[in-house]
């Protein structure tokens, strides 16, 4: 049996770091946060943070997601259209909330900092995209959707308009918009051909 080097990760220390990063994010915004500031607020060393996270973006995103409990369950109503409506509506509701606006701040930061972009893609967007993929795959298996459906492009068609409104036009993103969006997307998917 191989012996592990160093002390095991303390859940109490981890929680202190994640709580500190979340509090600093909400209070000061992402650009103002430093690993030094997180370490000071959590009562740990910078080395402890870097032992567990590769950079500021990773620890801040983990703190944010831990505090806002964003691990959404995969809806399974028996209808791919309904499941995607639920997923898109949940996303839109979250992104337009005060806490969800942090995501748009991180997207903006990611335009000039590739580490931030990589972390929010890996920790937030890719897991949610995988949920959408599973929903569409179930729809194909149940015969609701055509077998040759381009799943990746379909996901883009569903979620891109939400981000376009949030980041570009500033137009309303609500349940009515999501319902219309999903209706148009599913009408355009030519489901059975």
Automatic annotation (TrEMBL):
SUPFAM superfamilies: Homeodomain-like (SSF46689), Tetracyclin repressor-like, C-terminal domain (SSF48498). Residues 11-71 form the HTH tetR-type domain. InterPro entries: Homeodomain-like_sf, HTH-type_TetR-like_transc_reg, HTH_TetR, Tet_transcr_reg_TetR-rel_C_sf, TetR_C. Residues 34-53 bind DNA. GO terms for molecular function: DNA-binding transcription factor activity; transcription cis-regulatory region binding. Keywords: DNA-binding, Transcription, Transcription regulation. This is TetR family transcriptional regulator. The lineage of its organism: Bacteria, Bacillati, Bacillota, Clostridia, Lachnospirales.
């Amino acid at each position: 049996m191989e012996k592990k080097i160093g002390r095991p990760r303390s859940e109490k220390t981890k929680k202190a770091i994640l709580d500190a990063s979340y509090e600093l994010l909400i209070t000061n915004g992402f650009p103002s946060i430093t690993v030094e500031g997180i370490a000071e607020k959590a009562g740990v060393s910078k080395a402890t943070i870097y032992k567990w996270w590769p950079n500021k973006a990773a620890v801040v995103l983990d703190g944010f997601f831990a505090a806002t409990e964003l691990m959404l369950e995969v809806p399974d109503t028996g209808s791919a259209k309904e499941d995607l409506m639920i997923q898109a509506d949940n996303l839109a509701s979250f992104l337009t909330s005060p806490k969800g606006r942090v995501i748009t701040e991180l997207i903006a930061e990611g335009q000039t900092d590739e580490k931030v972009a990589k972390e929010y893609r890996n920790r937030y967007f890719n897991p949610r995209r995988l949920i959408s993929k599973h929903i569409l795959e179930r729809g194909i298996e149940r015969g609701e959707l055509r077998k040759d459906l381009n799943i990746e492009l379909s996901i883009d068609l569903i979620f891109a308009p939400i981000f376009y409104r949030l980041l570009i036009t500033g137009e309303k993103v609500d349940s009515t918009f999501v319902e219309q969006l999903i209706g148009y997307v599913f009408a355009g998917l030519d489901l059975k051909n």
